[in-house]
Design brief:
Length: 78
């Protein structure tokens, strides 16, 4: 099983066209996520996620953690 995220889907639903636009929205709220962290998260390349990162995304996207993360069944060998 893998933990995956729906950040791209949430962004599309909210009309956010790019990671750069999301990063500007985060900055505008006086919050911070490093751009590289945001890029890795968006591309499902993160092996772990900081609680503060999740909280920031939830605030900016007006959603819950369960709207962002989900479990994907399967393995690398399938």
């Amino acid at each position: 099983m893998f933990v995956r995220n729906r950040l791209a889907v949430l962004m599309a639903q909210k009309g956010i066209r790019s990671v750069s636009e999301l990063h500007r929205m985060i900055d505008a709220k006086g919050l911070t996520i490093a751009r590289r962290t945001l890029d890795k998260f968006y591309n499902n390349e993160s092996n772990r996620v900081d609680y503060d990162t999740l909280a920031t995304l939830c605030v900016v996207l007006n959603c819950g953690i369960d709207d962002i993360l989900y479990l994907e069944k399967g393995s690398d060998k399938e």
